[in-house]
């Protein structure tokens, strides 16, 4: 393990992934996610009792979180490999892989990376940019990035809730919210990302956004990634309402999809079962938060880690 970058940490309370005992103390994120929205008049999440809180939504001074937006346990690192005692192997011992399972490498220089993320998670946006930079440093490697839906708040009302209500409840006060915004904004600036939280008006239910990204995948390789990037920018930089299907269609049209066809798709039930299946699959694999990147060969990267961590995963560590 001496060849791994120092200072990386994997997620707390992931028994399957890390083979560790749950922390004796429930973190701020766990307390908030377990309380759901019931404390201010909104429904409890459908998956109540599981930690779904995005790490950036917790005051930075909370010792349970690292600078990379990863929920941590002492002594654990950000790159994990199967085959070691207590470490979860994502390759199931079955003939047909479940939703989100890795593909076996079929030819030299080709890799599939499953990306578990949510479009309202700023660390997922940061991680996307860092993974892109790592891929640019490996031009000879053909990589397919597959979007795996993971809702941080699966019990969010269909129309979402006002952002100021959500932020105050999540951060425990306006001062904490400002501090968290400043921190993630500074990190994003270093990665070429513009966060403008002052323009964000609502905390949306992201089912339709995830459905749309899955739909984009039918347009060819790379379309999911382009749309995910466009949705990140639309939400965090431009304050677009991701609950509004008209606005979702406009964003999709920006990457070449037909807006009318998108609206027709969103009006139906297409993709809803797949979004739910991806969430349940993530839980079954021990994934409790995002971003989470699953690479061919069994390596995984948890959190918006530095480019070097992604390079190690791409190279097989």
UniProtKB/TrEMBL annotation:
The keyword DNA-binding does not apply. Keywords: Isomerase. Residues 112-314 form the DSBA-like thioredoxin domain. InterPro entries: DSBA-like_thioredoxin_dom, Thioredoxin-like_sf. It comes from the Bacteria. Gene3D superfamilies: Glutaredoxin. The keyword Isomerase applies. It holds the Pfam family DSBA. Signal peptide: none annotated. One of its GO terms (molecular function) is isomerase activity. PANTHER family: GLUTATHIONE S-TRANSFERASE KAPPA (PTHR13887), THIOREDOXIN SUPERFAMILY PROTEIN (PTHR13887:SF41). This is 2-hydroxychromene-2-carboxylate isomerase/DsbA-like thioredoxin domain. It comes from uncultured Rubrobacteraceae bacterium.
């Amino acid at each position: 393990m001496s060849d791994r970058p120092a200072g990386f940490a994997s997620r707390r309370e992931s028994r399957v992934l890390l083979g560790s005992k749950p922390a004796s103390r429930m973190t701020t994120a766990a307390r908030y996610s377990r309380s759901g929205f019931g404390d201010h008049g909104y429904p409890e999440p459908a998956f109540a009792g599981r930690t779904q809180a995005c790490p950036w939504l917790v005051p930075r001074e909370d010792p349970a979180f690292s600078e990379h937006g990863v929920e941590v346990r002492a002594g654990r690192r950000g790159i994990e490999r199967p085959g070691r005692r207590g470490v979860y192997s994502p390759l199931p011992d079955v003939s047909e892989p479940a939703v989100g399972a890795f593909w076996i490498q079929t030819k030299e220089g080709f890799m599939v990376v499953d990306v578990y993320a949510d479009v309202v998670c700023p660390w997922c946006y940061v991680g996307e940019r860092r993974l892109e930079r790592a891929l640019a440093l490996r031009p000879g490697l053909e990589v397919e990035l597959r979007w795996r839906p993971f809702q941080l708040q699966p019990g969010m009302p269909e129309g979402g809730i006002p952002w100021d209500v959500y932020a105050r409840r999540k951060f425990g006060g306006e001062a904490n919210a400002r501090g968290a915004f400043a921190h993630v904004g500074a990190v994003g600036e270093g990665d070429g990302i513009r966060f403008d939280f002052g323009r964000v008006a609502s905390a949306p239910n992201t089912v339709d956004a995830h459905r749309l990204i899955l739909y984009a995948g039918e347009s060819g390789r790379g379309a999911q990634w382009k749309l995910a990037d466009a949705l990140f920018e639309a939400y965090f930089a431009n304050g677009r309402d991701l609950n509004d299907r008209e606005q979702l269609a406009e964003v999709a049209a920006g990457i070449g999809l037909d807006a009318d066809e998108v609206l027709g798709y969103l009006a139906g039930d297409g993709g809803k079962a797949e979004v739910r299946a991806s969430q349940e699959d993530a839980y079954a694999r021990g994934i409790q938060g995002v971003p989470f990147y699953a690479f061919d060969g069994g390596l995984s990267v948890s959190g918006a880690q530095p480019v070097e961590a992604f390079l190690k995963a791409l190279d097989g560590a």
